[in-house]
Amino acid sequence: MTEVFGVPLPALLGQLLLGLVNGSFYAMLSLGLAVIFGMLNIINFAHGALYMMGAFFAWMGMEYLGLNYWAMLVLSPLAVGLIGVLIERLLLQWLYRLDHLYGLLLTFGLTLAAEGVFRSFYGVGGQQFAVPEALQGATNLGFMILPNYRAWVVLASITVCMAVWLVVEKTPLGALLRAGTENPALVQAFGVNVPRLVTLSYAGGVALAAFAGVLAAPILQVSPLMGSNLIIVVFAVVVIGGMGSILGSILTGLALGVVEGLTKVFYPEASNTVVFVIMALVLMVRPAGLFGKEK
Q1: Is residue 6 a part of any domain in this protein?
Q2: Which has the least CB within 10 A, 153, 257, 287, 289?
Q3: Domain carrying residue 253
């Protein structure tokens, strides 16, 4: 059997795939955070809770309404996006001119409230979520066995992330979003409804978190705590990539997932801390992050 640095090749490729899957979730969640911070200047600590709600809504739609996975892949992000509209309009809009700490505390409180509600109904045990029939099984590539669902997660995540990047960077809507971030008063003077842009940006960012939650549901157990276990790592990814950088969030999320996977092979004891070590090193050299803009 072929080995790489003493590790069997199938085991190494399996960990690489696992790292790429985790990196896909990091990329989508950090992308949503970057969109929200870039447009609203809010550190959205509730992102993990909204990711959890996306998974739970998908599970509830299948369990109680008899809908299939593909329908919930669309409906769950839309439902969470509507919740995002309510959060932004009723709560966050009053905090934009205040210190970042106020937004962080408010969204942290929302996280505790959301987790508490779902824990009261479903406890802390996870709910099983079946892999859709069309994506069950695995494909033998000769050098490794590739689970079909994990391949779908990577493909769907990268496709959505790149689509969002193209919209933000290459379309008139993206130009309006960027202009609204840099000089909202000027954009408003040209007749653009900036508050509506801000609301849609927040809704879009949390919908991305919910989409990631639906993708994660068949891999992880759907639990009220699934978001809180992930969000700290995602914040580290955003800091490394650069706060507000769309492309930085995508590339850094994917890369750090792979690095984490490789660390589990060669030095498992460091796999839970390697992201934070990299964050510390990056901040020492480049405080704005790898893709962030120095002020």
Answers
A1: no
A2: 287
A3: 19-285
- Left, alpha or beta for 66 (phi > 0: left; psi -120 to 50: alpha)? left
Please compute the mean of the pLDDT values over residues 182-209 and round it to a whole number: 84
- The answer to whether 61 and 76 have CB atoms below 8 angstroms apart is yes
CB atoms within 10 A of CB 13: 17
Q: Residues near 260 by Cβ (< 8 Å), separated by ≥ 6?
A: 19, 22, 23, 271, 274, 275
In 12-109, DSSP assigns E strands to: none
277-281, 284-288, 290-294, range with the lowest pLDDT = 290-294
Asked whether the beta carbons of 211 and 54 are under 8 A apart, the reply is yes
Q: Residues with Cβ < 8 Å from 115, sequence gap 6 or more?
A: 49, 52, 224, 225, 227, 228
- For 145, the 3-state DSSP assignment is strand
Residue pair 219/18 in contact by the 8 Å Cβ criterion = no
> Does position 110 have pLDDT exceeding 80, yes or no?
yes
The structure's pTM equals 0.91
Question: Is 226 domain-assigned?
Answer: yes
Rounded to 5 degrees, what angle do the CA atoms 44, 47, 48 make?
135
